[in-house]
Automatic annotation (TrEMBL):
Signal peptide: none annotated. It comes from Virgibacillus kekensis. Pfam families: SSF. It is found in: Membrane. Belongs to the sodium:solute symporter (SSF) (TC 2.A.21) family. Keywords: Membrane, Transmembrane, Transmembrane helix, Transport. This is Sodium:solute symporter. The keyword Transport applies. PANTHER family: SODIUM-SOLUTE SYMPORTER-RELATED, SODIUM/PROLINE SYMPORTER-RELATED. Coiled coil: none annotated. It is a multi-pass membrane protein.
Length: 467
């Protein structure tokens, strides 16, 4: 069965888009300085913080890649397993959230500089920008899929429109305007997914109707993947989440420790609801639309459901995609402004100048994100690349700041360079041998280099004297 566009769905997408724009403009008027723009004035309460954590993490990576593409391409069990790294990551962040807030930094690079020095900050900023523009790029494609389904326009044209919308909303009000729209999007999406889930299975003929129309291997534990290949899909999201600057900034923007802890519990519960729902909907889509792009699996179901249900689901998918794109674009722009321009070229910049530069960087990085997506054939591929660049390049060195007192600057910087270099070598130069995602190679290399170089360059006698 092919996907036929349904222009009526565009009304739902358009209406929700208008709501997001109005909210964005309203809250942007409350931005008075750079802290408002980047950390929402450190005033996010539990409800809004829960929503923004949930919406930021569940973007096109889940709607077009992640659980959706895994369920469509490999089966229901691999898709459900994609939830595990997120749950583990949230648990670990729960433990270190007070330390994150105590650092009081705008960026992860600032935390790394406090431990490893200025060089680490510059390297980390480059890594974050490389990863985050990739993440933003497939949010733009996700919107291209939505506009293709609703209007029949090409995915390429829809991606351009998506890019303009994401850039606009990110640039007008920063986190001060992004966070409230995130919260609305998150809770709206939970409701939409749980209306959609039973509906699509009724349409598909129930569980038996679905399983009879998918390949037999899609009901096995790993689908057509080997255990090592499956691990290659699970690890990137875990190590991105553990070091994700977006999440660190949100935790730092809370009103206090209690709000942050409650919000993380809400985030965990939300993921337990959202992730399996997306997986099962995409799995049903595989039986109805066996020949579509895997990234369109969830959104394609909107065309066979009653218009009002399909419209609500598509609007919620739009909301998730836009909010994630806004967040990662804003975060990357923060790195350019504070970790590169203000540190190297404009050390005497006023707060007003920094705010203006951040907005300009949002626009320039948004354009770069649009250019990047043309180099990757699927959303899932660019997702795994971006996650690994970040997870292998930054996370081992970042976690060591919190958990290993002995780690030194040489070890941390060497680990960052080794993680990124191995990722780029495996993905681009070697073209992903054995169909293994680069995280299987790059992450162990980064961890080993971190440990070995630290032990080889530290002075035990001096450490003992300090202790």
């Amino acid at each position: 069965m092919g996907v036929e566009s349904n222009p009526a769905l565009l009304w739902f997408v358009g209406a929700y888009g208008v709501i997001m724009i109005i909210m964005g403009i309203y809250y942007s008027r409350k931005v008075s300085n750079s802290e408002d723009f980047i950390l929402a004035g450190k005033g996010l309460g539990t409800f809004v913080l829960t929503g923004t954590l949930l919406a930021t993490w569940t973007g096109s990576g889940s709607i077009s890649g992640g659980e959706t593409s895994m369920a469509f391409t490999y089966g229901i069990i691999p898709a459900l397993l994609m939830m595990l790294p997120t749950l583990v990551g949230i648990g670990i962040l729960y433990l270190i959230a007070p330390k994150i807030r105590d650092f009081g930094k705008y960026t992860v690079s600032g935390i790394l500089e406090a431990k490893y020095g200025t060089t680490a900050r510059i390297i980390a900023s480059v890594i974050i920008i490389l990863a985050f523009v990739g993440i933003v790029s497939y949010q733009m494609t996700g919107l291209g899929f939505i506009l293709n389904i609703t209007t029949g326009m090409s995915v390429e044209l829809g991606t351009i429109i998506g890019a303009v919308l994401i850039i606009f909303l990110a640039s007008i009000g920063g986190l001060r305007s992004v966070a409230p729209t995130d919260a609305l999007s998150a809770f709206f999406a939970v409701a939409a997914l749980f209306i959609t889930l039973p509906t699509i299975y009724i349409i598909a003929g129930g569980w038996d109707g679905v399983t009879n129309n998918v390949p037999a291997e899609h009901l096995t534990a790993t689908g057509t993947l080997s255990n090592v290949q499956l691990l290659g899909f699970l690890l990137p999201s875990l190590f991105l989440l553990l070091g994700d600057q977006n999440m660190y900034q949100r935790l730092a923007s809370s009103r206090g420790g209690k709000s942050a802890k409650k919000a993380q519990i809400g985030w965990l519960i939300g993921m337990l609801l959202i992730s399996p729902a997306i997986s099962f909907i995409a799995f049903a889509s595989r039986s109805i639309f066996p020949n579509i792009d895997p990234g369109m699996a969830l959104m394609a179901t909107t065309t066979v459901m009653p218009t009002i249900i399909g419209g609500i689901l598509l609007a919620s998918a739009t909301a998730f995609i836009i909010t994630t794109g806004n967040s990662y674009l804003l975060s990357a722009a923060t790195n350019v402004t504070y970790d590169i321009i203000a540190k190297r070229f404009k050390k005497d910049a006023t707060d007003k100048q920094l705010l203006g530069m951040t907005k300009l960087c949002v626009i320039l990085l948004g354009i770069l994100s649009y250019i990047i997506i043309s180099y990757f054939p699927t959303v899932l591929e660019v997702q795994m690349y971006a996650y690994t660049v970040y997870g292998a390049g930054l996370t081992p060195a970042l976690l060591a700041v919190f958990f290993w007192k002995r780690v030194n600057a040489t070890g941390g910087i060497s680990s960052m360079i080794a993680g990124v270099a191995t990722t780029l070598l495996w993905e681009i130069v070697l073209d992903k041998p054995f169909e293994l995602n680069s995280v299987i190679i790059a992450l162990p290399v980064a961890v080993i280099v971190l440990i070995v170089v630290t032990l080889a360059t530290s002075d035990p006698a001096k450490e003992k004297e300090v202790g």
